[in-house]
Amino acid sequence: MKLMKTEDAVGQVLCHDITQIIKGVTKDAVFRKGHIITEEDIPVLLSVGKDNIYIWEKDDTMLHENEAAQILYDMCKNDHMHPSDVKEGKIELIADCDGLLKVDREKLKKVNSLGEMMIATRHGDTYVKKGDKLAGTRIIPLVIKKEKMETAQAVCSDGPILTLKPFHKKKFAVLTTGNEVYYHRIEDTFTPVIQEKLAEFGAEMIFHEVYDDDASKITDGCRRAMEAGADLVFCTGGMSVDPDDKTPLAIKNTGARIVSYGAPVLPGAMFLLAYAENGTPIVGLPGCVMYSKRTIFDLVLPRLIADDEVTAEELAGLGEGGLCLNCKVCTFPNCGFGKGR
User: Fold this and answer.
1) What architecture is domain 171-316?
2) CATH 3.90.1170 holds for 62-164
3) Keyword Flavoprotein, does the record have it (predicted)?
């Protein structure tokens, strides 16, 4: 590109959008890239502070901001997402379906560390809906060296930065445990909470039984729930370390692989996650899920619905950001809860 006096630019081709900002009225381009400047355009350009203007000169070693933004978009894009129109050198990625957004944080950091370019995303492991913005891309200058963009592309040579895992229709089981519920001393107020949360994902409860504090019965119930076709098994009650709390032992006795008993999240420290031999998640839910608006259950559930296996290392990483502030107006998932990684 070439810089020249605005008054001398009649007939030249703009190499970037010209933005006009009027507080409370508009913030948009008055002229778009590729516009051929006319005599009538000169006063308008001067009114937005453009005493000098960049005009386009083709250079095979350089890329225009729109071309570079397209490359950044291509490095991010994956199935179930589409681009916005390019505007002022920026392209956004939009979700095509409800799902779980995954971000390759290492690749994202490497690209953003190269300088003169940026990719901004939502937090990874976030529940997003169809039409939500996932990320935005652009370069910082008006033009950038083609060689530098090739370096950025190499970072993503083995796969894109973003993945959107669609949610799946699930069938689930709830095993309510505890003598106090089994003998009708108190009402089961836990199961309706689970049903409500799973309903957000279109899941169907196909199995529900109530057990006293007998580990062998709970173990048998977990197995029968899976035989009945449950894709997810939730056990409520009996999750603390009291001697008469049998649920963790019962889940272990199914032969399931215990990922973690305990998690650095409040509310939700006594959370248990296991995977049965057939891959079915078996989850021990602490009592806080029944009465707290947001808990570790809200962090893990979208991943279970999207068939995104959760590891012990990932659960351990929830510590930073794992303290829910119980805000008067809850904005989850658009808040810092569970997003410190």
Assistant:
1) 3-Layer(aba) Sandwich (3.40)
2) yes
3) no
